[in-house]
């Protein structure tokens, strides 16, 4: 069965004036010659992305789109009409966003996070910025501490909303983020807490004891690189710590405290140094 808006493996069965004809055994798809792989022969299976042309025909391309159906993506508005806007998918086919599917009116030249789906009536690839309609509200397969892939969707007073693993929605709290984030940014993240109602709190830093072990290694490596000294200490600002190490002050103090207890470093207000016995 051909999946519209996704990549398919289809068999090349004949040539026409306009391109190759591919099939899954039930429906036929046209692949224009400009996208046909060199040396393709009848009987070959070709890996192609399938969509519906404006004239209603099934079309294929070997180009790679910015997103497929059932995915969230950060796309740019390139055109509009009275019924909605069109967003660039990175191929010769734009995706339509009906006005009713826009959380806020979209403008040409602006980029937005949207979800791609097939319209039930027309099968055409369609997009929506009503993201909450397409996320899974059940977080049963996530656990606190899990590493996840994040797509930042929008900023609020609380922090940054993010799509988790192309499936769930979570929140990064503003006071725990030490870098500039914007919609469309992709980050590695971690599940910090799953609250009542399956609301998911996120962190950009590893959670728990494993985090401290990782940061100890980071600090020791940084000290070695800097000839045994880093100009960061108990009274350094959170901004200075993040600029140098990309971690929070709280995480820095925990890792440094652990190394100090092991007598591997010496700590002062604005500097940490390798202890004499720890120097290589």
Provide a descriptive summary of the structure in words.
There is one protein chain. The protein has about 280 residues and is mainly beta. The chain folds into 4 domains: about 5-60, OB fold (Dihydrolipoamide Acetyltransferase, E2P) (Beta Barrel); about 70-130, Nucleic acid-binding proteins (OB fold (Dihydrolipoamide Acetyltransferase, E2P)); about 145-205, Beta Barrel (OB fold (Dihydrolipoamide Acetyltransferase, E2P)), CATH 2.40.50; about 210-280, Arc Repressor Mutant, subunit A, CATH 1.10.10.10. It has 3 helices and 18 strands. It has helices spanning about 210-225, 240-245, 250-260, and strands at about 5-15, 20-25, 30, 45-50, 60, 70-80, 85-90, 95-100, 110-120, 125-130, 145-155, 160-165, 170-175, 185-195, 200-205, 230, 265, 270-275. The chain has a 5-stranded antiparallel beta sheet, with no helix packed on it.
The radius of gyration computed from the alpha-carbon positions, rounded to a whole number of angstroms, is 25 Å
Distance between the termini: 63 Å
- What is the domain tally? 4
- The CATH homologous superfamily of the largest domain is called Winged helix-like DNA-binding domain superfamily/Winged helix DNA-binding domain
Could you give the topology of this structure?
Layout: E1 7-15, E2 19-23, E3 28-32, E4 45-52, E5 58-61, E6 72-81, E7 84-88, E8 94-98, E9 111-118, E10 125-128, E11 147-155, E12 159-164, E13 168-173, E14 186-195, E15 199-203, H1 209-225, E16 229-230, H2 238-245, H3 249-261, E17 265-267, E18 272-274
Parallel strand pairs: 13-15
Antiparallel strand pairs: 1-2, 1-4, 2-3, 4-5, 6-7, 6-9, 7-8, 9-10, 11-12, 11-14, 12-13, 14-15, 16-18, 17-18
Helix pairs in contact: 1-3
């Amino acid at each position: 069965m051909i999946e519209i808006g996704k990549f398919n493996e289809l068999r090349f069965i004949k040539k026409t004036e306009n391109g190759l004809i591919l099939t899954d055994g039930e429906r036929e798809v046209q692949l224009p010659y400009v996208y046909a792989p060199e040396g393709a022969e009848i009987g070959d299976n070709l890996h192609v992305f399938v969509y519906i042309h404006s004239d209603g025909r099934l079309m294929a391309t070997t180009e790679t789109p910015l997103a497929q159906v059932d995915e969230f993506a950060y796309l740019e508005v390139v055109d509009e009409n009275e019924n909605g806007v069109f967003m660039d998918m990175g191929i010769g086919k734009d995706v339509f966003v009906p006005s009713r599917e826009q959380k806020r009116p979209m403008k040409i030249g602006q980029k937005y996070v949207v979800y791609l789906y097939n319209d039930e009536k027309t099968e055409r690839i369609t997009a929506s910025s009503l993201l909450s309609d397409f996320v899974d509200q059940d977080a049963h397969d996530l656990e606190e501490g899990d590493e996840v892939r994040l797509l930042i969707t929008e900023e609020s007073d609380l922090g940054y909303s993010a799509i988790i693993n192309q499936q769930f929605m979570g929140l990064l709290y503003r006071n725990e983020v030490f870098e500039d984030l914007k919609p469309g940014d992709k980050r590695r993240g971690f599940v910090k807490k799953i609250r009542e109602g399956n609301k998911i709190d996120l962190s950009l830093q590893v959670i728990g004891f494993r985090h401290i072990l990782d940061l100890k290694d980071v600090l020791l490596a940084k000290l070695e690189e800097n000839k045994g000294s880093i100009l960061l200490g108990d009274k350094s600002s959170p901004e200075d710590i993040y600029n140098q190490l990309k971690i929070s002050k709280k995480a820095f103090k925990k890792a440094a405290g652990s190394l100090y207890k092991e007598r591997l470093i010496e700590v002062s207000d604005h500097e940490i140094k390798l202890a004499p016995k720890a120097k290589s």
